[in-house]
Design a protein that fits this description.
This protein is an all-alpha fold and about 220 residues long. The protein is about 70% helix and about 0% strand. It is globular and about 50 Å long.
Length: about 220
């Protein structure tokens, strides 16, 4: 990447851009981890096959949900407020339509992972390639317009509270703690209270799937491990 954005704003505060970029970090982090884990399966280590299948379901649901939020909330709002972004956003939406069948192909391939590894490797490689350019485009053209938003919407109910806690546990993994402290200042006390347990559970899940919960301390959307 030529110009990698910082997670925090220039004034060292967090914003919705920060939360958005930590999601990008998580998407990049996990696609790399899938590639490494699949290499080990190809080498004959079949012990994590079921864990990888389960983790794929988490990943594809997270990625699909991220794109649905963009398509239904973020992008329409930005196009209305900033018509000059229309061409860029239309291109990003086309990417979403390309990614959807990749996720469906991934579902089929991961279901057969115990007997066929190379189809999964191809899907993960293709998806990673498209995500590389897609996320860079968002970070160049979309993220600057999110820097001024300094309030995270409060959860509407207990189910949403739990969903947000799980989402932040995922996106927090591998982010520098001082950056996370700034992000957490944007959240409700109820949500912050749930994060330690959610993050601990996610670290345990990482150990089961990837063999480690070590993930670095990134200050940009690029994983540093």
């Amino acid at each position: 990447m030529a110009n990698v954005p910082n997670l925090l704003n220039d004034d060292d505060t967090a914003s919705m851009a920060t939360a958005f970029l930590t999601s990008h970090h998580g998407l990049r982090r996990d696609i790399r981890l899938f590639a490494g884990a699949l290499g080990r399966v190809l080498a004959g280590n079949m012990s994590t096959v079921q864990a990888l299948r389960d983790e794929w379901k988490h990943y594809r649901d997270t990625l699909h949900g991220h794109h649905m939020m963009e398509d239904t909330v973020l992008f329409p709002s930005l196009k209305e407020q900033h018509p000059e972004l229309t061409t860029v956003i239309d291109g990003l939406t086309v990417d979403h339509r390309k990614i959807d069948p990749m996720l469906e192909e991934g579902d089929r391939a991961f279901a057969e992972l115990a007997t066929q590894v190379r189809p999964v490797v191809r899907v993960v490689g293709s998806l990673g390639g498209l995500l590389h350019s897609h996320l860079e485009t968002e970070e160049t053209h979309i993220v600057p317009f999110l820097r001024e938003a300094k309030a995270f919407p409060p959860p509407a109910n207990e189910a949403e509270l739990e969903m947000y806690a799980q989402g932040f546990a995922w996106s927090s993994h591998g982010i520098a703690e001082d950056v996370l402290d700034k992000i957490y200042e944007l959240l409700t006390p109820e949500l912050r209270a749930k994060l330690p347990a959610a993050r601990a559970a996610f670290a345990k899940r990482c150990e089961a799937v990837w063999g480690t919960s070590i993930a670095g301390a990134a200050r940009t959307p690029i994983p540093d491990l």
